[in-house]
Each structure stands twice: as C-alpha cells, then as structure tokens.
# Entry
Amino acid sequence: MDDLDEQAIREKAKQDGITHLSTGVAIVRDGKILMVRRAKDDFLGGNFELPGGGVDEGESIQESALREITEETGLVASKVLATFEGFDYSTDKKPRVRQTNFIVAVEPGEVALSAEHDDFMWVDGVILDGVQTTGPMRTCVRNALAKLQST
# Structure
C-alpha cells in the first residue's frame, strides 16, 4: 500500500485553509468499484459517489475510511490496497473540505446501505460513463480505476 503521511496531509490542509477532512473509499470487487447513490433529499441527492465521509475528532484518516465502509455499506474491509489522489470541495455546512481516497478490498458479503444512500452499483470505466455523478467524483473514480490497474 502507498504510505499515508497523515501529519503531512493535516499540515498541508491547515496551510491551505481547509476546514474539514473527509475520506472516499473505492471498494473493489471483481475489478469493479462500488458507488452509492445519495438519497434524493440529501446534499447532492440522486448522485452516485464513493462511500466515505468526515474524519471525526481524534480519529485517523484511515480509521475514518474503514469506519465509513461499514456504516454506509455494511461491508467490512479486509485490506487497504492503496491511496490515490483526492480533491477539495464544499458543502452547505462545510466550506472547505479535503478528501483523501483509498482503494480497499472487502470481506465477502452483501451491500446493506445506510439511510444516507438509496441505491448502489458496481462500476468499471464503461459503466461509469452513464452514471449520474459530479465531475470531480467521476474523475475520482476514473483515478481509482487507473490506480487499480497499475497495482
């Protein structure tokens, strides 16, 4: 796995005026990546995204990613395979967020979504073209697929 220099990530975020840290998790199964659709009444509702979420106080970035997998999908991580390029964004409640991304293998099991999401799909590069998502998230998933092919 790529080394995750958490201290450097946190220091750079502070220098850049980032107010919150978050994670995105490309869960891999059979060469495809899991995307989940945000519930219609939620921020960016109806769009597919990688599972993930905010890093809680006192929690490491990787701990957050692993927690979010189970909370949002019901799956359990078996191995963190890599990290890959993240991106910055804002929400209606968080002005400057920096997302750190992981590629993770999970133990066998069925997806069980939290109330935050109402659908899911396993995507590859071809399927991704037809998925309703934001531009930054589409790029993020493409980066995960490329990284997956190179590992």
Remarks:
- The radius of gyration is 14 Å.
- The chain has a mean pLDDT of 93.
- The chain is about 30% helix and 35% strand.
- The beta strands are 20-29, 32-38, 48-49, 52-54, 77-89, 97-106, 117-123.
